[in-house]
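can u do me a favor
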């Protein structure tokens, strides 16, 4: 098993890609702290992990709230004694997020709070424990929109994922001397409830996005999670500060 003996915190793991990640990490031998702002969802993920023979604990955490971020880290230390992997997966993309000219300030601040402050707070409290052991892998979920413009904008989301990418690079430089690697995954459109719920309501938007993708389809959560397993494992010991795009070829398609 590729993650045997490791302890991983995965945020937003009560559903979608986060749940897929938690199940896969546990199957690969990691003990998992399943963090989500909906405790019932987190507990259901834990139930599924335990039913499959894995080990996990649920933490109710709004990652934008410092006390919650600290509590999920404390839970990992109390239960398992260490933190090897911090997988910053939690993120939001509200319907009110459009162009800067018509996105409400409240929507902008909400996106920044979860998508950027949440990564900052999780790192703030997890990194010192990694430094103590001179070992750790931080995996930040950015997005392909962090490196591309979009004619159908979601500017708060785009800006937030650009910030996550920049923070990833800074952390990679700061903490590699202490044995901690930090990398970013930049997925294209993936078939998660967050995305599909929106696209199912807007067939034109769905067709437009599929037309841009050379593969002609959206990604699958397990395809992104497979990359995360690599970054969490010792196989990626010399992978640090990387921006790993997994988008089916959207970002290299001129038309």
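np, heres the sequence
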């Amino acid at each position: 098993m590729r993650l045997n003996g490791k302890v991983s915190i995965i945020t937003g793991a009560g559903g979608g890609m986060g749940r897929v990640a938690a199940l896969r990490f546990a199957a690969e031998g990691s003990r998992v702290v399943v963090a989500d702002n909906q405790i019932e969802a987190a507990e259901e993920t834990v139930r599924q992990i335990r039913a499959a023979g894995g080990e996990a604990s649920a933490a109710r955490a709004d990652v934008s709230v410092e006390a919650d971020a600290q509590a999920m880290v404390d839970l990992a230390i109390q239960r398992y004694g260490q933190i090897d992997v911090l997988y910053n997966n939690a993120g939001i993309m509200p319907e009110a997020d459009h162009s800067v000219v018509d996105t409400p300030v409240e929507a902008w601040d909400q996106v920044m709070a979860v998508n950027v402050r949440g990564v900052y707070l999780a790192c703030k409290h997890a990194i010192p424990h990694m430094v103590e052991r001179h070992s750790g892998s931080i995996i930040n979920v950015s997005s392909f929109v962090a490196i591309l413009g979009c004619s159908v904008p979601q500017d708060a989301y785009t800006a937030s994922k650009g910030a996550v990418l920049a923070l990833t690079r800074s952390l990679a430089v700061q903490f590699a001397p202490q044995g901690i690697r930090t990398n970013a995954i930049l997925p294209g459109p993936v078939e998660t409830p967050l995305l599909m719920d929106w696209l199912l309501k807007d067939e034109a938007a769905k067709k437009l996005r599929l037309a841009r993708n050379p593969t002609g389809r959206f990604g699958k959560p397990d395809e992104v999670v497979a990359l995360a397993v690599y970054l969490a494992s010792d196989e990626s010991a010399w992978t640090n500060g990387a921006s790993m795009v997994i988008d089916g070829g959207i970002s290299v398609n001129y038309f």
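The helical segments are 16-27, 39-51, 66-80, 105-133, 155-175, 193-201, 203-211, 221-232. hope that helps!!
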